[in-house]
Amino acid sequence: MAEHAPGTRLLERPQGSEWNLAGAEMWHAGTYGGLPVHADSTEVHERALELLQRHASRRDRVLDVGAGAGAFTRRLLVHGFGAVEAIEIRREAFLVPGVPVHALDLNGAWADQLPARFDALVALEVIEHLENPWHFARQCASAVRPGGWAIVSTPNIESSRSRIEFLLRAEFRFFGARDFEKVGHITSLTSSQLGRVFAQAGLDHVERRFSRHKGMPRPGNPKRVLRALLYALSYPFMAGTKRGEESIFAFRRAA
């Protein structure tokens, strides 16, 4: 990998081979309303919408942070959320007409540059791409009003499959060299770590949901057979939350 000058911001570096492609060309798990869903599965967006519908009103002002092409923004509009804005640093990649989009650097002081505070924000599959999760959490707290909500998703490195991969490869699922090179995953967090980060910013953890659990691939060769056996033997002894590929959290700022 090429060397970078000291102090070079990660945003100024190649963030994986797909990072600088147009939104529709990047890897995606599916589409919504013709727009690519940049997540492990479209279920991440479905669970996030459920949390937002549970805790926010359709009249609320909602900010889609790291919106990409705008698949989740479009989902919000379809489900009756009328006051939606977005942050997407590649303004040309955002493809939902009529929605205000702010081209802001999420590694910087982006909340101070917003036109107002929001009732809720959604940051799906964003925090794992950023340099400093503590800074991002503080920015999220500044972006929402007192009593407002932040819906945040990230890969679940506590899943049983991720634990086995770490045991065998010394790398968490979704955070190997290929994930860095291709999609720019640089920051992995357990659920307890993420909860502490947002709590220190003044956002309390209220609820957590998950996307589907994939488990281990079916055995197909001796190496996979041994991996499957290790998985079966260790699964009953794994503590904590071990199911779900992606975690989706609801945080609330104190009123």
Give your account of this protein's structure.
The protein has 255 residues and is an alpha/beta fold. It has a single domain, classed as 3-Layer(aba) Sandwich (Rossmann fold). Helix content is 28%, strand content 20%. A seven-stranded mixed beta sheet has the order 5-4-3-6-7-9-8, sandwiched between helices. The chain has a two-stranded antiparallel sheet with strand order 1-2. β6, α3 (133-143) and β7 form a beta-alpha-beta unit. α3 (133-143) crosses α6 (191-200). The model is unreliable at 1-26 (pLDDT under 50).
CATH class: Alpha Beta
Strand content: 15-25%
Number of helices: 7
Helix content: 25-40%
Number of strands: 9
In brief, what are we looking at here?
The protein has 255 residues and is an alpha/beta fold. It is built from 7 helices and 9 strands; from the N terminus they run ββαβαβββαβαααβαβ. The protein has helices at 43-55, 71-78, 133-143, 160-169, 177-183, 191-200, 222-234, and strands spanning 30-32, 35-37, 61-65, 83-87, 101-102, 118-123, 144-155, 203-210, 246-253.
Offer a few descriptive terms.
two-stranded antiparallel ribbon, seven-stranded mixed sheet, Rossmann fold, 28% helix, alpha/beta, single chain, 255 residues, disordered N terminus, globular, 7 helices
Set out the fold topology.
Layout: E1 30-32, E2 35-37, H1 43-55, E3 61-65, H2 71-78, E4 83-87, E5 101-102, E6 118-123, H3 133-143, E7 144-155, H4 160-169, H5 177-183, H6 191-200, E8 203-210, H7 222-234, E9 246-253
Parallel strand pairs: 3-4, 3-6, 4-5, 6-7
Antiparallel strand pairs: 1-2, 7-9, 8-9
Helix pairs in contact: 3-6
